[in-house]
Design a protein that fits this description.
Number of helices: 0
Shape: globular
Mean pLDDT: 92
Length: 93
């Protein structure tokens, strides 16, 4: 399967970068799933929000985000958030 180049960046630091199969984020327009080949767009992240990065092999990374934007271009996805905090996967079970 094709991969997306993903960058999750907060105001203070680069949180995560790498290849993913899909990115899901909640914008002010609703929840958005981005797959490789998605049309370019710029969306404002909803607050409170969560960004989920789905990796090859089924692993998923989740981050609580506040403020910011989601940018989709031909080269990948950039999430620029005011802050991003990893969600503890064990806390959701």
């Amino acid at each position: 399967m094709a991969q997306l180049q993903v960058e999750l960046v907060s105001v203070e630091e680069k949180i995560w970068t790498g290849d993913a199969e899909m990115v899901v984020a909640r914008t002010t327009e609703g929840e958005l799933g981005v797959l490789p080949g998605h049309a370019p767009l710029l969306g404002q992240l909803a607050e409170p929000g969560q960004v989920r990065i789905k990796l090859a092999g089924g692993e998923q990374l989740s981050y609580e985000v506040t403020g910011g934007f989601l940018s989709v271009t031909g080269s990948g996805v950039t999430v620029l958030a005011e802050s991003a905090t990893p969600v503890d996967a064990s806390a959701t079970h």
